[in-house]
């Protein structure tokens, strides 16, 4: 919950050297990386998360369902949505 109230959490980038360090740690020693997450600034953690999503081979909102997501976003009635 640390970052829940941080303004610009996903807009502002973390220090690039720390982002690289954390990514390397999570790639090479995931258990240790997870244990040490709290030692990194919240913007560093958010930057690592953003890079993970950016580098997925297929986005979470898949290409196949893109049109459905767009249609759902255009529905104004909360009950229907």
Automatic annotation (TrEMBL):
Primary localization class, coarse: cytoplasm
InterPro entries, A to Z: Myo9, Rho_GTPase_activation_prot, RhoGAP_dom
Signal sequence region: none
Assigned GO CC terms: actin filament; cytoplasm
Residue span(s) of domain Rho-GAP: 1-81
Keywords assigned by UniProt, alphabetized: Cytoplasm
Subcellular location: Cytoplasm
GO molecular function: actin filament binding; GTPase activator activity; microfilament motor activity
One of the GO biological process terms: intracellular signal transduction
Protein name: Myosin-IXb
Protein source organism: Pararge aegeria (speckled wood butterfly)
